[in-house]
């Protein structure tokens, strides 16, 4: 059984999505299917087939979320003592050793990753290079364009 690490915020977002799908989307689709059924011949009823297809996708997503939440390992980084070490859930400021350009990332679970929001998956090359290192360390990140070196400026538990 696969365990899914996630932050408290990530678990909350999945719970909210699940509630929306089960309490809003599912009943609406059932209503749409019922209305489409009333239109007549189901063989050539595009509305009916579209609603059924959408229902299948929604039900699959509901099962996926339920499975992920059931197997989630929710980690509240704010309850872990700050040691300066990069751990799951930590927010890390790193600086490119060549350009001095700094960037801030939070290391999160795969479902939560969104690079535009500064959230990177724990399985990403940068996160894998950072995990276990401490403030002041220089890490090498293997990228398609070559090896990049970053210095860990600050680790925060927020």
UniProtKB/TrEMBL annotation:
Q: Determine if Phosphoprotein is one of this entry's keywords.
A: no
The record places domain Transcription elongation factor GreA/GreB N-terminal at 5-74
Q: Which UniProt keywords apply?
A: DNA-binding, Elongation factor, Protein biosynthesis, Transcription, Transcription regulation
Q: Which GO terms describe its molecular function?
A: DNA binding; RNA polymerase binding; translation elongation factor activity
Where does the Transcription elongation factor GreA/GreB C-terminal domain start and stop, copy by copy?
83-156
Look up the record and give one Gene Ontology term from the biological process aspect. DNA-templated transcription elongation
Highest taxon of the lineage: Bacteria
| This protein's record includes keyword Membrane | no
Which PANTHER family does the entry link to?
Answer: TRANSCRIPTION ELONGATION FACTOR GREA
Question: So what family is this one in?
Answer: Belongs to the GreA/GreB family.
Matching NCBIfam families, A to Z? greA, PRK00226.1-2, PRK00226.1-4, PRK00226.1-5
The record's function comment reads: Necessary for efficient RNA polymerase transcription elongation past template-encoded arresting sites. The arresting sites in DNA have the property of trapping a certain fraction of elongating RNA polymerases that pass through, resulting in locked ternary complexes. Cleavage of the nascent transcript by cleavage factors such as GreA or GreB allows the resumption of elongation from the new 3'terminus. GreA releases sequences of 2 to 3 nucleotides.
Q: Would you tell me the protein name for this molecule?
A: Transcription elongation factor GreA
Species for this entry:
Pseudomonas mangrovi
The opening ranks of the lineage are: Bacteria, Pseudomonadati, Pseudomonadota, Gammaproteobacteria, Pseudomonadales
């Amino acid at each position: 059984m696969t365990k899914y690490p996630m932050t408290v915020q990530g678990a909350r977002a999945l719970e909210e999505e699940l509630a929306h799908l089960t309490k809003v989307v599912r009943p609406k689709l059932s209503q749409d299917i019922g209305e489409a059924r009333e239109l007549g011949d189901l063989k050539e009823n595009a509305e009916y087939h579209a609603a059924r297809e959408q229902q299948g996708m929604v039900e699959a997503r509901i099962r996926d979320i339920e499975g992920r939440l059931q197997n989630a390992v929710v980690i509240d980084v704010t309850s872990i003592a700050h040691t300066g070490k990069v751990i799951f859930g930590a927010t890390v400021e790193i600086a490119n050793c060549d350009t001095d350009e700094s960037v801030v990332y939070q290391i999160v679970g795969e479902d939560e990753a969104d690079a535009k929001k500064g959230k990177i998956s724990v399985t990403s090359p940068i996160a894998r290079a950072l995990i276990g290192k401490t403030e002041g360390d220089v890490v090498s990140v293997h990228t398609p364009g070559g090896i990049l070196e970053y210095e860990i400026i600050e680790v925060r538990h927020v």
